[in-house]
Amino acid sequence: MTAPHDLPRIDPETLPEPVDVHDNSEALAAVRAVIAAGPYDATWESLQRYTPPRWYQDAKFGVFLH
Fold first, then answer.
1. What does the alpha-carbon distance between residue 14 and residue 9 come to, in Å, rounded to a whole number?
2. Is 13 part of a structural domain of the chain?
3. Which domain holds residue 52?
4. H or E element, residue 26
5. What is the number of structural domains in the chain?
6. How large is the C-alpha radius of gyration of the chain?
7. Structure confidence by residue, pLDDT tens digits, 6-55
8. Which of 19, 43, 55, 64 is 20 to 30 A off residue 9, Cα-Cα?
9. What whole-number distance in Å separates Cα of residue 35 and Cα of residue 22?
C-alpha cells in the first residue's frame, strides 16, 4: 500500500472545471416526479405495504452498509 506522502502530486492545470451545483432544483423536480408516480405515499401505512426482496433479508452486514 502506498503511503499518502508517496502519492504523486496533482497538477491543478489538469483538473476539470468546477461544476456549479448551487441550484439543484431541476434534479429535485425529477426526483419529486418519480416519487409522485411511484406506488408509495409519504405515510407509514403506505410504506407498511412494502415487502423487501428475499436477497435483502439474506444480505450480509457489509452489503447493507454499501
1. 11
2. no
3. 32-66
4. helix 25-37
5. 1
6. 21
7. 888 899 999 999 988 889 999 999 989 988 998 888 789 988 998 888 88
8. 19
9. 23
